[in-house]
């Protein structure tokens, strides 16, 4: 499918998200769309997929002008979009999610659909159990399922919005192999990203957006410095590490075991000091997610004790942990972190509410205006959270962090952020560290741990198999521990 976008404009009230964008994508190619957060990438792709309507311009598919009033119209024309946040139903099974939206759903039996799913999955070397509950799948597996569903609906153009965010390196390579196979088979792939290394590894051509405009186009092989200049002007530099020495013990686990994820957590004993920045590494489901939820009071241990400032927290719920200074930011922004349908101001109103019937609207509006400006959120206090790009949703989550948390627990803190935004965000977080906040974070990329952490824990099969300082954090040693190979050095 050959795509042309001509002079595409999109207004959200006074915000001009797309400003006369022109884009041409050839059939059978993988085309990258790069740009910083809020550059207009997701907006442009949502227009092409029928999710939102353009304010002006023209869309041509194989030379024919088309108008999409909704995603169903785009789907009938062979366009499928894999959104940054999965549009699926966790209470249903893998097979039931695969069958959603199928035109011939009532004509085929469940066995027929299971066979179709199996055939497609085997073609791309995906391993999905049709009877498994969707909630048991990793982010990468949910992404694989949605990709197969779109293909079963007849997608000839696949749009992927930040597809490598939140998935493991192994899952990323499986995805890339599948996308290369799709291109060889004649399908067209549009990949929205802010990760230059992903575009280098996969794309034939790239278009770069900045502040709603096209600032550059180039063919592979790509020059990273040129791309950065088109994205940001001046390439950003990483933040300095926290220089504050660790203080008294603030959080400790004593022989803690718990269920959850693929491996749970097994007899974990570890402690953390005031002002530390600790990176939690490991393959998805190795125990770090369960660990963070135990530390936040969102999950209770089967055995063992969690101590906060030396106090046994057995029986305490998440609200008690929050009251004692523990803040948790989840990776699932629209499922756990933010509330779809509410505005930015309403989120600050909720954050300010105590046990009272009075809602502090004026205070919330004042805080919203200040935080929108300080955190450079591209929206207004009245903007609903689903109207923000993924990166700006992440900025909003970060802006909701209390001024001086005692312990800050972060799942993929830079999810969806471009490199400049990620560095800016870490500068903000490391300022909290200088004030005594203890930060524990579990990113998708090992490079992020090596950039900011002063201590690294590696999880494997529900256990901490390596605990080293930043000086001892050799990438090869950490990589071996992540794979379950730990030396005694």
TrEMBL record:
Record key words, sorted: ATP-binding, Nucleotide-binding
Domain ABC transporter per the UniProt entry, residue ranges: 3-236, 246-486
Gene Ontology molecular function: ATP binding; ATP hydrolysis activity
Recorded superkingdom: Bacteria
Record-linked InterPro entries: AAA+_ATPase, ABC_carbohydrate_import_ATPase, ABC_transporter-like_ATP-bd, P-loop_NTPase
Pfam family, one: ABC_tran
CDD domains: ABC_Carb_Monos_I
Name the UniProt record assigns to this protein: Nucleoside ABC transporter ATP-binding protein
Source species of the chain: Desulfacinum infernum DSM 9756
Lineage: Bacteria, Pseudomonadati, Thermodesulfobacteriota, Syntrophobacteria, Syntrophobacterales
């Amino acid at each position: 499918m050959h795509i042309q976008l001509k002079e595409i404009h999109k207004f959200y009230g006074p915000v001009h998200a797309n400003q006369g964008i022109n884009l041409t994508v050839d059939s059978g190619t993988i085309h990258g769309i790069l740009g910083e957060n809020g550059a207009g990438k997701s907006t442009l792709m949502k227009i092409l997929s029928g999710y939102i309507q353009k304010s002006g311009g023209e869309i041509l598919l194989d030379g024919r002008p088309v108008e999409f009033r909704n995603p169903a119209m785009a789907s009938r024309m062979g366009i499928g979009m894999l959104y940054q946040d999965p549009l699926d139903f966790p209470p249903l099974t893998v097979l039931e999610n695969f069958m959603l939206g199928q035109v011939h759903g009532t004509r085929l039996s469940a066995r027929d659909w299971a066979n179709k799913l199996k055939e497609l999955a085997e073609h791309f070397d995906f391993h999905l159990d049709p009877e498994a509950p969707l909630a048991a799948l990793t982010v990468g597996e949910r992404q694989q399922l949605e990709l197969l569903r779109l293909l079963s609906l007849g997608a000839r153009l696949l749009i992927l919005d930040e597809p490598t965010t939140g998935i493991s390196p192994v899952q990323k390579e499986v995805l890339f192999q599948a996308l290369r196979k799709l291109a060889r088979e004649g399908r067209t792939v549009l990949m929205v990203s802010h990760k230059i290394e992903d575009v280098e590894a996969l794309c034939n051509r790239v278009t770069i957006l900045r502040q709603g405009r096209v600032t550059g186009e180039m063919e592979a092989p790509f020059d990273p410095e040129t791309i950065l200049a088109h994205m940001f002007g001046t390439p950003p530099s990483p933040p300095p590490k926290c220089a504050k020495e660790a203080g008294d013990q603030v959080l400790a686990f004593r022989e803690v075991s718990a269920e959850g994820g693929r491996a749970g957590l097994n007899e974990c004993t570890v402690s953390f000091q005031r002002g530390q920045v600790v990176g939690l590494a490991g393959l998805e489901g190795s125990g770090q997610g369960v660990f963070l939820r135990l530390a936040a009071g969102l999950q209770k241990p089967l055995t063992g004790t969690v101590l906060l400032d030396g106090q046994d927290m057995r029986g305490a719920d998440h609200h008690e942990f929050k009251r004692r200074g523990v803040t948790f930011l989840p990776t699932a922004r629209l499922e756990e972190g933010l509330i779809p349908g509410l505005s930015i101001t309403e989120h600050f109103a909720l954050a300010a509410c105590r046990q009272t019937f009075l809602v502090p609207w004026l205070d919330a509006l004042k805080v919203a205006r200040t935080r929108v400006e300080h955190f450079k959120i591209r929206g207004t206090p009245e903007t609903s959270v689903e109207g923000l790009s993924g990166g700006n949703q992440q900025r909003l989550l970060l802006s909701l962090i209390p001024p001086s948390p005692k312990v800050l627990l972060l799942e993929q803190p830079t999810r969806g952020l471009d490199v400049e935004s990620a560095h800016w965000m870490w500068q903000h977080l490391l300022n909290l560290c200088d004030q005594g906040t203890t930060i524990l974070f579990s990113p998708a990329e090992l490079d992020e741990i090596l950039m900011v952490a002063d201590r690294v824990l590696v999880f494997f099969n529900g256990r901490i198999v390596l605990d080293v300082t930043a000086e001892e954090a050799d990438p090869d040693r950490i990589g071996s521990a992540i794979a379950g190979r730990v030396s005694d050095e």
